[in-house]
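Would you mind writing out a protein's amino acid sequence and the numbers that encode its backbone to help me picture the idea?
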Amino acid sequence: MPATDFGDPSQILHVPERDLRGTREEKLAELDLLLTQLQLVRLVLCGRLDGTDARADDQQRTDASPALQTGRIVRVLLLFLIAVGFGVAPAGAQSPEDDPTAPLPTETAEKATSDDAWRAVEFGVTLESFYQYNWNRPPDRSIPLRAYDSRTNTFAVQQAAFIADLPPDVSAGRRFGMRADLQFGMATETVQGNPANEPRPEAYRNLWQAYGSYVFPLGRGVQTDVGKFASNLGFETNYAKDNNHFSRAYLFNFLPFYHSGLRVTYPVSDELTVMYMLTNGIQQTEDFNDFKSTHLTAIVTPLPALTWTVNGTPIEVGPGQALCIPRGAIHRFDNNGGQDVKALCVITPAAIGPQFFHEAADVFAAAAGGPPDRARLMEILRRHGLTPAPPQA
């Protein structure tokens, strides 16, 4: 009977885990070695390398040929290599417990989070250009009461911008973030950087925003931003795409456009957010004097947003915002929040009047909370000049 009975149910053959590390060639070499060792273990379990196929007695083994003796020695060496290979992991496949220089699981997780963060960075480019003409035809081609678009009969680049944005995302396990905005053009040269209140305006003029963010796990999350960031004062912003009109109001000339320092934001509830800023004054990247400016803001959102879908594109319209729907565009609105929403709709020319809403209200009232009469609603819509559109897939 062989010295080791691999068929004994009480005997456990330990095959430890192995990590493949190193270059591609090193990983393939480790994998080839592992497959070879596993094949040898299979041969042992099948009884092909344990000597059970011998049929001769001790005398016959003594008189065996040198080739047979050599084969036995090879089998012993193979079994030894199997024990070494599975009992001790090679240096390139040590676990973190065996290798003090190997990265800890937390370090690996942090590296994965960092890699995911770089992939989440969003890059953007904006270009604002225009042609302006004054029908009054001023003799010097100057247009008064304008911030920077002060010339008539001219093409101009109002602003070009390059943006990199990585907002914090706590739900994705990322509490940090950053943003940087580079701006160029006549708007940038006019409203950013003023030698009257900044020591070195040229150094930061094209850098409208550059700040880092971190959300501390306190309550709903306290977000802190450090660096240079846009001012929240005023109804209009530096990007024309975020305003109701391409040209700015005259009040825009006198508003601060940026601050530099610390900004702390905390959402008290869905309706109330408080913000505190400690900055180098107003419109100052570098401090001009020995004092700091403080600012406290309460952002109140009494009503949730209404979701309008215009030609298949969903658009969130919140308090104080407006939306223009072109004539003939397929549109609808949805209230996806938990509160009632009020909206003012102006229709020009007046395609429908109060009678349409009275008739539609009667249909909903007759349903008593159930599904309204669809055929009756379609008839009312068509009679008042509205064309029902089937739901889009």
User: Anything to note?
Assistant: Residues 178 and 274 are 21 Å apart (CA to CA). Residues 50-64, 80-98 have pLDDT under 50 and may be disordered. The chain has three domains: 24-93, 105-300, 306-383. Helices lie at 24-45, 58-62, 66-87, 105-120, 186-191, 201-204, 354-367, 374-383.
